Amino acid sequence: MFTTSEINGHLALRMENDLLSIVILPHKGADIYSIVYKPKGVDFLIKTPGGLQPPSEHPPSDFLDNYEGGWQELFPNPGDAVAYHGAQLPFHGEAALLPWQFAIERDDAAEATLRCWVDCRLVPFRLEKLLRLRRNQAILEVEAKVKNVSDQQEYFLWGQHIVLGGNFLSAGCRMDIPAATIITPAELYEPATASLAPGQEEPWPYALGRHGEKIDLRYIPGPEAHWHDDIYLTELEDGRLEVANPDLKLCFRLEWDAEVFGCLVNWRPLGGADLPPLTGIYGLGIEPWASHLNLTEAIQRGEALSLRPAETLQTNLLISILTE
Description:
Strand content: over 45%
Number of helices: 1
Order of helices and strands: EEEEEEEEEEEEEEEEEEEEEEEEEHEE
């Protein structure tokens, strides 16, 4: 079932079945604003302190200009701003900054299906994603596509910016992922609140703390930890991750194709983000990316994705809410 409304001036599409309610903001990057498990009223996605700001006659030119939380599409360059073929690609790419078109393809008792698409302006790609909810299933199916609309081979990176929070994330949550290696950046974004030592490569799940101690990354502390870290989890055995909240008896499972998204960016603003506009947020980023490198570095090292003229890449993601 679909209903439409507005959130602070933005068109909001709500698709739902008996178990899940999903809100999408099609004209704001096709962001997924919330994922709510209806029987317990639990929203799994973070909301930033500033919240969603109204549309402006001057659209955002940077990802953080109006970052409300939730789930964004990062394309063609998750991470740092970078130059590509004479264009300056912004931080986390342009896809999340653009209005997407949409069509409700099915809306009946058995299934709700929404298709969203956008033509990038700085690079010659079309992005498309289809969201599907089936009756009696606490599962969100996502079919994602990218097509090269140019007459030459083009390179890109791709990522999903999913950040857990809401009334789901709390102290005592546990994250499990079949990863082999933990990497931390050589330069820390907020050194004063980083819990982990920079420039390390350690076997999952134990990372080195700032003072040489071992920290088990499977266990999530509360906001009183006042930590803020960026972590890259690599050498994935499979594209699968679970975050469980034992108090709520709920588990958020994410599945993806590790051949496409071969790195999991684990952003941890656990109460220690001091710089605006993220000051004080409490969340857990579970972000499948094609590479943790920027686009220029990924092309040089052979980690970038590429498509020939008119070629399309399709991949699927699955969100499942499990109960004990």
